[in-house]
Amino acid sequence: MLTTFNLGIIVLFMGKLLSGRFPLLRRYNIPEPVSSGLLVCLITLLLYLITGIEISFDLHARDVLLIYFFAGIGLNSDLRSLLSGGIPLIILLCATIGFMFLQNITGVGVATLFNLNGAVGVLGGTTSLIGGHGTAIAWTPLYIERYGITNASEIGIACATFGLVLASLMGGPIANILIKRHKLEPKTCIQPDVGLTHADEHTKVDMYSILSAWLILNLCLTLGAAIRESLSSAGLDLPLFVCCLFGGIILTNTIPRLFPKLKWPTGTPALALMSDVALGMFLAMSLMSLQLWTLSDLAGPIVAILGVQFILAFCFALFVVFRLMGRDYEAAVICSGFGGISLGSTPTAMANMTAVSKRYGVAHKAFIIVPLVCGFFVDIANALIIQAFLNWFA
Description:
Layout: H1 2-21, H2 23-27, H3 32-51, H4 60-75, H5 79-84, H6 86-113, H7 118-127, H8 132-147, H9 152-182, H10 207-233, H11 240-252, H12 255-258, H13 269-288, H14 299-324, H15 329-343, H16 346-360, H17 364-391
Helix pairs in contact: 1-3, 1-13, 3-13, 4-10, 4-11, 4-13, 6-7, 6-14, 6-17, 7-8, 7-9, 7-17, 8-9, 9-14, 9-15, 9-16, 10-11, 13-16, 14-15, 15-16, 15-17, 16-17
């Protein structure tokens, strides 16, 4: 675990170096851990092809970094901002659910062209793309037992893996196109939710501001674990990172009001920097650990399905989501996050938005709406949609 963690740090440094050497990466807002993480997984693939050596990583530390990141997002979530974002949240949720139906229809259509069971299209749709690795693995037994797709696990993991890569590369260019075409600018120039802007990368952060933010983050994690335990005992299972997000929202909307003289980390460079490190490390460790050699036997249908899904997601974000979300700078950042939702995962969506906001400016509402949609509501809707589609092939 320590070796993996240290390699993650090195990969982040590599990403910084690559972005500095290749302006194209920065111009299209490709997250730094994405460019270097993909380079490392390609190196491990080359090593496997030459020597047959398989490299795997212990990713326990990575999962801890994810909940730190979302606790930080919660701490930056003032209730008044959440209430003001209520209608956009509902709009984005409805748009995402509509897209989920399109994604499964597309998957079924492409699978049919290859004379495959239509259920394979659902597996290559929201099961593995919007659902990610966890959802794909969880539904694998049903695909095997009911539909006889014996390699369902491999197909699901392959689609989720390549979807993660495509999602990481999609969000930045979408936002860049929209911002340049419509000459968009942020309404305010306050401290970003995650990281520092490129112009302020040398902002001073002292030891005590870091310690204060760290302590409050740990309180969010403690409260989040308690929330998850309470919900689980009531029969409702939510991911731990969503519960820690709620924990941060609860604390940041109560403690500062009860103790107004207390220095709270909301909106501080220390908290933004810690969130940036946690997300960067999570994404770097996720991508560098991809074992691409496990996917070679499924190349044809997977490439076709993912190619069409990529075009669908890109066009949907560009022409539908942007208009529905208000055609402003916040909408452009949300579209970059939608690229992560549609083919990847919640952390990928957040990484896409972080890369954009670090270059152009803060988009606070986007950082509240997107994780709530893709980290909470979409998981519930996806389970119902998958089951509805699979019932057609029963």
